[in-house]
Amino acid sequence: MMTKICQAADFFAPRKDNNICVIAGPCSAETEQQVLETALNIAQYKKVKIFRAGIWKPRTSPDSFEGVGEPAFNWLRKVKKQTGLLTATEVATPEHIELCLKNKDAIDLVWTGARTAANPFSIQALADALRGTDFPVLVKNPLNPDIKLWAGAIERFQKVGIKNIGAIHRGFYPFEKINLRNVPKWELALEIKSLFPELPLINDPSHIAGKREYIFDIAQKALNLNFDGLMIETHIKPDNALSDAKQQLTPDALISLLKKLKFRKQNFEHKKYFDLLEQYRHQIDSIDFQLIELLNKRLNISKEIGKYKTDKNVSIFQLKRWLDITKTRHEFGEAIGMDKEFIKQLLQLVHKESIRLQSEIMNQNKTN
Ligand code: PEP
Ligand code: MN
Question: Distance, CA 53 to ligand 2 centroid (Å)?
Fold first, then answer.
């Protein structure tokens, strides 16, 4: 028997320029009417290719709405028929996968949630349930900013032979109070893209934002960073939504947001612009190597200081000196227009490495 060509395959093919794929739909499928009305309105905008709707919802409290389960397949079947959109839902257990496979005419792709990604046993069970199928999977980042856990989840699906896989950056649990619901760690998302360059990288600004007014800026940032797609929660009546009400947009708001976004080109069309970029990149390359050399010089001096402190039996950390370093460098950085937080983090990193090297030296001379 010929293997069925996955309908969603286009979505996973290399992206052509600003041909971003948008996934939109409600956090949860609640009623047939809510699902169909939302889908019909969303489908009017051609950049939206995939309709999302959670059938089973991972909720913090057992008293919250946990999804309608199987009846939603029929609603999604109707969505496909009436709009031509592809459909996607979240799976968290092998039983969810079995049901999606049984209803393959209603579901085109599945995604794994942030809570599931944190548990390799759960991801492995999902991968095993998909073994031997061609079902496409989008893998959300785990709640904790552990790149290996996210990459490991992707690899588990690759290892059972799933060809069409994507990664979704939905932000990470905030340990400090911030205005967003989850912390976007763009550097981790870009690292995932470097580890798996062939995988589409999608941004979920809704779960990062937590509030609808923040969604535009986050989505624009994702496009500026060359993400391949967006997943945006959209509900026909967001304020009545049974989950994530504050972050969902109406279909109209979704469409005006998409129209306002600047879709960036992946590369330069004209050689002259590209040449200028190359010149800038040469300058950056040269500065980076100089920076590393200078840092190495600085750390070598730290090592000498470490030997001296060991000799004189003086403790490594000198509070007065550290306060003086931070104060003078902050002032200098600010005077030339640099970001205070950046200087602070840079100094902390360099200081941490100095302390590590000096501790090594002191430990080698324990007898002293
Ligand atoms: C969702 O997409 O509705 C969802 C529950 O997402 P996450 O796993 O990112 O919290
Ligand atoms: Mn949600």
Answer: 9
